[in-house]
C-alpha cells in the first residue's frame, strides 16, 4: 500500500516549474496558489507590462493580508514571492514542465498561443487552458502534441474557490490527465471531470442563469438590488447574479454566452444589454464599473 501511495504521489512530482500565461484576475491567482500551496516555481507572463505590475501588487497585497491575520509567516510570504518570476516574453516558459494559459476568452487568440507554446516548450510539457468555454480539442488541434493538451478550469477567486474542472480533449493522454489531477490536488483543490463540450459543467449551468438575470433587469423585472437580493436571500445564493457577472467580468460572460449560443443553439442567445455594456467598456469590477460602480 505504501508503495502504491508513493507511485500515486509521484505522478506530478516532475512538474517543478509552471509557466502561467496571462496575469489578469485568473492567471495571478493561479500563479499565487501554485507558488504558495503547491510550492512550485512559476513564470508569470503577460503581453501587457501594466498587467504584470498590477498582478505583483495584487499578490503582494493578498499575502500581506494573510500575514496580518496571522495565517502565514513573513518567511512563508517571502518564500511564495521568491518562487514567482514575471516576464513579458512568452519564450521565458521554454523550460517549464507545464504551462497554464489564462489569457482573453477568444478561440482564435488561444489557438494561436497554443501553437506558439507547442513550438517553444520542451517536448512532453503539458499545455493546459483555463478557458471557461472554448473547446479544448479545437485549442489542441494545431499543436502537433494534442496528447499533452488539457483543460484546467479554475474558479474565481482562485485563492478561495475549492474546485478545478479538468477537461480532457479528444486526444489528451491519460498521463496528462493524471498529472493535471495530481497538480490540482497539490494546489489544495477538489477536481471534477467534464466532457469537452461548450461551457463544460460550471458555465453550462451558471452562464444562462446570469444571462437571464441581465435580460430580466433590462426588461425592468426588478432593480439591480432587488434582482440580486432576491437570489441572495430568497435562494441562498452566495452572491446575486448581477454582482457575480461584474465579478467574473462582463466581457468574459459575453464571450462564454456567444460560444454557448453558436454551438448549442438559440436558447443561449446573449442578452442584448450584456453586449451593450461590453461595447461601452463597462466590463465589471476589474475596471471599476459594470452593473455596479466600484471605488
Ligand atoms: P483578465 O482580462 O483579467 O486577464 C487576461 C490577461 O491576459 C490580461 O492581463 C491580458 O493582458 C493578457 N493577455 C491577453 N492576450 C494575451 C497574449 N496573447 N499573451 C499574453 N497575455 C495576454 O481575464 P481573466 O478574468 O483572468 O480570464 C482569463 C481566462 O480565464 C479567460 O479564458 C476566462 O474565460 C477564464 N476564466 C475566467 C474566470 C473569471 O471568473 N473571470 C473564471 C474561470 C476562467
Automatic annotation (TrEMBL):
Q: Which UniProt keywords apply?
A: NAD, Oxidoreductase
Binding positions (NAD(+))? 22-27, 46, 105, 110, 132, 156, 286
Highest taxon, organism lineage? Eukaryota
Metal-binding among the record's keywords?
Answer: no
From the UniProt record, which GO molecular function terms apply? NAD+ binding; oxidoreductase activity; oxidoreductase activity, acting on the CH-OH group of donors, NAD or NADP as acceptor
TM stretches of this protein: none
Q: Which Gene3D superfamilies match?
A: N-(1-d-carboxylethyl)-l-norvaline Dehydrogenase, domain 2, NAD(P)-binding Rossmann-like Domain
Domain 3-hydroxyacyl-CoA dehydrogenase NAD binding residues, every copy: 17-196
Question: Site positions for Important for catalytic activity, renumbered to this chain?
Answer: 153
Domain 3-hydroxyacyl-CoA dehydrogenase C-terminal per the UniProt entry, residue ranges:
199-294
Question: One GO biological process from the UniProt record?
Answer: fatty acid metabolic process
Protein known as: 3-hydroxybutyryl-CoA dehydrogenase
Species name: Dictyostelium purpureum (Slime mold)
Amino acid at each position: 500500500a505504501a508503495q502504491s501511495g508513493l507511485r500515486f504521489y509521484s505522478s506530478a512530482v516532475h512538474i517543478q516549474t509552471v509557466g502561467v500565461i496571462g496575469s489578469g484576475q485568473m492567471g495571478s491567482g493561479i500563479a499565487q496558489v501554485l507558488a504558495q500551496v503547491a510550492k512550485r516555481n512559476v513564470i508569470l507572463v503577460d503581453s501587457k507590462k501594466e498587467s504584470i505590475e498590477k498582478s505583483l501588487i495584487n499578490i503582494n497585497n493578498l499575502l500581506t493580508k494573510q500575514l496580518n491575520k496571522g495565517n502565514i509567516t513573513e518567511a512563508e510570504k517571502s518564500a511564495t514571492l521568491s518562487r514567482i518570476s514575471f516576464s513579458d516574453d512568452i519564450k521565458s516558459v521554454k523550460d517549464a514542465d507545464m504551462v497554464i494559459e489564462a489569457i482573453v476568452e477568444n478561440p482564435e487568440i488561444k489557438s494561436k498561443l497554443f501553437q506558439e507554446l507547442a513550438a517553444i516548450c520542451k517536448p512532453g510539457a503539458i499545455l493546459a487552458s483555463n478557458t471557461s468555454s472554448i473547446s479544448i480539442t479545437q485549442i489542441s488541434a494545431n499543436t502537433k502534441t494534442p496528447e499533452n493538451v488539457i483543460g484546467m478550469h479554475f474558479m474565481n477567486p482562485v485563492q478561495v474557490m475549492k474546485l478545478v474542472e479538468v477537461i480532457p480533449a479528444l486526444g489528451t493522454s491519460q498521463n496528462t490527465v493524471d498529472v493535471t489531477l495530481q497538480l490540482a490536488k497539490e494546489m489544495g483543490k477538489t477536481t471534477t471531470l467534464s466532457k469537452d463540450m461548450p461551457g463544460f459543467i460550471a458555465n453550462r449551468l451558471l452562464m444562462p442563469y446570469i444571462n437571464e438575470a441581465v435580460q430580466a433587469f433590462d426588461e425592468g423585472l426588478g432593480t439591480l438590488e432587488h434582482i440580486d437580493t432576491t437570489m441572495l436571500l430568497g435562494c441562498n445564493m452566495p452572491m446575486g447574479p448581477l454582482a457575480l457577472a461584474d465579478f467574473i467580468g462582463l466581457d468574459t460572460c459575453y464571450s462564454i454566452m456567444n460560444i454557448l449560443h453558436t454551438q448549442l443553439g438559440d436558447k443561449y442567445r446573449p442578452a442584448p444589454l450584456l453586449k451593450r455594456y461590453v461595447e461601452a467598456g463597462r466590463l465589471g469590477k476589474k475596471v471599476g464599473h459594470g452593473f455596479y460602480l466600484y471605488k
